[in-house]
Amino acid sequence: MLRDINPEGMNTLVRNLEPIAPDLARFVVEFAYGDVYTREGLSPQQRELCIIAALTAVGDCKPQLHDHIEAACNVGCTAREIIETILMMAVYAGFPAAINAMDTAKRALDIG
């Protein structure tokens, strides 16, 4: 599934973890995208918006947030949906988290 929604992100993940923790890359690919992401109940668009919200709330995940914004676009999410998801997190995760995520979105979406 990860290869389908963000092939470059998958390649980067595997390449970065290969020298130190190849099993971690395998866990992400097999568990997160094999077992969890493919479950019924949410569309790929809904899943990516949930992930964007979570990464925004966590805060210190700019590379992962960037990858998931790209993945969200790849599965059909609009820039407006992504921006609104991040904006909603200002209420629940705080303004600094939302501002930082918006900066990442600006670069990922190539806005301004």
In words, what does this structure look like?
With 112 residues, this protein is an all-alpha fold. The chain has two domains: 1-39, no CATH class; 43-112, Up-down Bundle (AhpD-like), CATH 1.20.1290.10. It has seven helices and no strands. The longest helix has 15 residues, at 22-36.
The CATH first-level class of the largest domain comes to Mainly Alpha
In whole angstroms, how far apart are the ends? 31 Å
Number of strands: 0
State the shape.
Answer: globular
Q: Say which CATH homologous superfamily of the largest domain is assigned.
A: AhpD-like
Number of domains: 2
What letter string, H or E per element, gives the SSE order?
HHHHHHH
Helical run tally: 7
Q: The CATH topology of the largest domain, please?
A: AhpD-like
Helix content: over 70%
Radius of gyration based on Cα positions: 14 Å
* Structural class by helix and strand composition: mainly alpha
- The averaged pLDDT comes out at 95
Main beta sheet, described? none
What can be said about this structure in brief?
With 112 residues, the protein is mainly alpha-helical. It is 78% helix and 0% strand.
Write the layout of secondary structure elements.
Elements lengths: L1 H4 L1 H11 L4 H15 L7 H15 L3 H13 L4 H15 L1 H14 L4
Key terms for this structure?
mainly alpha, 2 domains, single chain, AhpD-like, 0% strand, 112 residues
